[in-house]
């Protein structure tokens, strides 16, 4: 897949400061306008999560039990239940939990939507996610050696990543990682590489793993023990439906997240390029390191509005349901300052991700054009 070149114009420090002022104004204006419609929106999402989850579980149980006596209802109920269960998990993870844990709805004063205490429906703990995602990833987006989301310690996606023979296996590792994504997220905070290299003691690893183990056990018992056992002797179809629903959620989440930062035109940055970083510099890095998805309202909802990854990285604490309305303003500002606004359809963006995974399986060097595109005032 040929790479389309969109050279970003270098900005002077004065331009970077002006760039920041314009984006700060969008944030301030949007924050000042938050109110009842935003609270109603997130409460509707929470209701959709509950209703689709209950219906999904009920249909799985109904299909398993009644299917033994009325085979005609078995497969329709099982498929519908699995899809509704998967939908509930996707909505909860993407549009509810992810955005709530960013503190987007803390202004409501509702403990059900408090960013620091919300616990989500996934194998990993919310506390660990708030550290690896909210703190590390959003602060050091696409900075090599500082953002652990670049390849997640398993994959080589950019030519600037040092090649090792291990990466020859990544065409096999990547799909397995997608299927088991929630478990990969669960252990990301543990930094197992440090333990393997002897930089972390086994005692320290065990201590860090305790809350993760508790959360993993809770998820397994709830989805794969209690729910199937409610069907009695017909537990196996329910277990299968629960497993497939979680796999669907995992793959969808993996696709959306990888499309957000690993497309052809997304950039990575050296540690040196962020030394003394100004606010305008930080904003510029978020734009250059992020990728949007086009697809309309349903794409926005199903992706947790990470279809507007650029806006999310510029304003992670603003309610995500506002991103669609501020996106045209962000795009116009980027155009005036000569910065490429990376957006495309899901097939296009994901195709670029797949190409990166395949291309950088093998040794490769950064293109000659990339060093000139590192963040640096003119």
From TrEMBL:
Cross-referenced InterPro entries: FA_desaturase_dom, Fatty_acid_desaturase
Fatty acid desaturase domain: residues covered: 75-343
TM regions (residue ranges): 59-87, 172-190, 224-245
Keywords: Membrane, Transmembrane, Transmembrane helix
Keyword Transmembrane helix: yes
Chain segments annotated as coiled-coil in the UniProt record: none
UniProt-listed Pfam families: FA_desaturase
Record's keyword annotation contains Membrane: yes
Protein name: Acyl-CoA desaturase
């Amino acid at each position: 897949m040929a790479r389309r070149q969109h050279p970003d114009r270098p900005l002077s420090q004065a331009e970077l400061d002006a760039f920041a002022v314009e984006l700060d104004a969008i944030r301030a204006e949007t924050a000042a306008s938050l109110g009842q419609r935003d609270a109603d929106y997130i409460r509707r999402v929470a209701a959709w999560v509950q209703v689709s989850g209950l219906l999904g579980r009920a249909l799985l149980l109904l299909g398993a039990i009644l299917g033994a006596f009325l085979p005609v209802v078995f497969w329709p109920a099982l498929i519908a239940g699995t899809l509704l269960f998967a939908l509930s998990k996707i909505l909860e993870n993407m549009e509810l939990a992810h955005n709530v844990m960013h503190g987007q709805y803390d202004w409501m004063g509702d403990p059900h939507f408090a960013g620091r205490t919300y616990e989500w429906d996934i194998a990993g703990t919310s506390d660990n996610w708030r550290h690896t995602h909210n703190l590390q990833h959003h602060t050091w987006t696409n900075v090599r050696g500082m953002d652990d989301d670049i390849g997640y310690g398993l994959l080589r996606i950019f030519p600037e990543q040092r090649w090792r023979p291990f990466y020859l296996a990544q065409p096999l590792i990547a799909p397995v990682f997608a299927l088991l994504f929630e478990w990969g997220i669960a252990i990301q905070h543990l930094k197992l590489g440090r333990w393997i290299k002897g930089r972390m003691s086994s005692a320290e690893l065990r201590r860090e793993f305790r809350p993760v183990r508790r959360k993993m056990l809770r998820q397994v018992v709830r989805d794969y023990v209690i729910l199937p056992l409610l069907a009695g002797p017909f537990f196996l179809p329910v277990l299968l439906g629960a497993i497939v629903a979680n796999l669907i959620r995992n793959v969808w989440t993996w696709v959306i997240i990888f499309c957000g930062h690993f497309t052809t035109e997304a950039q990575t940055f050296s540690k040196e390029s962020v030394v003394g970083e100004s606010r305008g510099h930080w904003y510029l890095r978020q734009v250059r390191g992020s990728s949007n998805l086009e697809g309309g309202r349903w794409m926005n909802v199903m992706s947790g509005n990470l279809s507007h990854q650029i806006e999310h990285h510029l304003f992670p604490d603003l309610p995500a349901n506002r991103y669609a309305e501020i996106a045209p303003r962000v795009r116009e500002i980027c155009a005036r300052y000569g910065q490429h606004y990376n957006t495309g359809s899901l097939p296009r963006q994901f195709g670029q991700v797949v190409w990166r995974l395949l291309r950088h399986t093998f040794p490769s060097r950064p293109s000659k054009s990339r060093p000139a595109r590192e963040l640096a005032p003119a």
